[in-house]
Amino acid sequence: MATKCPECGESAVESESHYQQEQKVCTNCGAVVSEGQTYQADDNAGTFLFHDGAAPSSVVQRKYYGFDNKVMSQGRKHGISNIKLLASNFNISKNMQQEAITIFEQAYNSSPFKRVSLEKKRVLAGCCIYVVCRQAGWPITLAQMEKVMSSPREVIFSIFKLLIKELDIEVKTPQVEEIVETTLCDCGIKEATLVEKTIRVVLLAKETWVTCGRQPQSVIIAAAYIAWKSIQNQKKQLNFAKFCRQFKLKAEAAARRRISEIEEVLLRLANEIPWVIKENLNKRIVIGHLDDVLKYEAMLTSSVKYSDAVSSDEENDSEDDNSSSPVATPLLFTPMKRSKHENTGLSIPDEFPVQLVSNSPELTEGDVADANLYEYLKTPEEVSLTSSIYSAYEDALESPLSPKRKKQKT
Predict the structure, then answer these.
(1) Torsion sign over Cα 97, 102, 105, 111
(2) Which of 51, 60, 369, 383 is the most exposed place for a label (fewest CB within 10 A)?
(3) What is the pLDDT of residue 215?
């Protein structure tokens, strides 16, 4: 019966022969608990000399678990076998499988993974497969790996973050539209028309920032429901619960919230279509106009941007200004209002050659790339400094030496 290891505490200490001598070694962490004979290299003869002395266990452990030995620890065996099993399930090539094993070996030999449990080493093997697949451009997510590995999400994400941090690996996050087909295939949705329309709805949701900060699976399921509902007969009562029962899905609350957000976007865009009767427009009827919204998406989006830019110049800062739309999508529904600047008592002269981005008809917040948004955000100190510059400019215009005052006198 195996005894407990004094290093890791696992009952994995076994007696094994090593160069014709008995050693008690922990098969979990590789520590040598006891040894009969040790060895010492003789540089002159080029051979190993054995004696009955006590050598440091680290020397024996390094020789015992070197890359040139056939004996392998239980954790390493378990991880490599799990990589091979996942590789066969995902049908990846031998080169990708070997690359995943190499990443696993590097992580296994690093200090953060030496004392982890066998369960976490199994998760580490799955994370190595995920890294290799993402580097090859495969449309796969950690949520799909969670189903395959049958491990808690917290453990998978913690091991994955530790892996990429320890080995300095760059893994590109897949775009939501890239994983639509694989997600729908896992849900049993394989109809080509439904998949194609779902992708278009997902792209619309991405354009209107519905996907920002949200789990892609919930957005995809919501888009699939809306696309499925538009294909079916509108006279039937088609609720989300029936959709989930048909495709054997779990009716999650996050997917219901995404459905409501996408429907609000469709209502706002359909309201810009000339032949749509605005008085009768609601969430049930707007599904019938989904094809028109997707067909004229670019024009409708630009029209909504322009309407928001005009309304932001005309509306005052009142308590119910924020009630115009329940969807918090910066592209369409949250234009910055000039009244915020007017309340500070700051007036910009007509001669000043600077125009605010939020009030510019040519440039709106939706035209600014995410990577450049920080250039338009100001700290309270920067706002105070800008206000003082404007005040100094106004004082300069009122000065007798100002060119403007000289022109008025002449």
Answers:
(1) negative
(2) 369
(3) 86
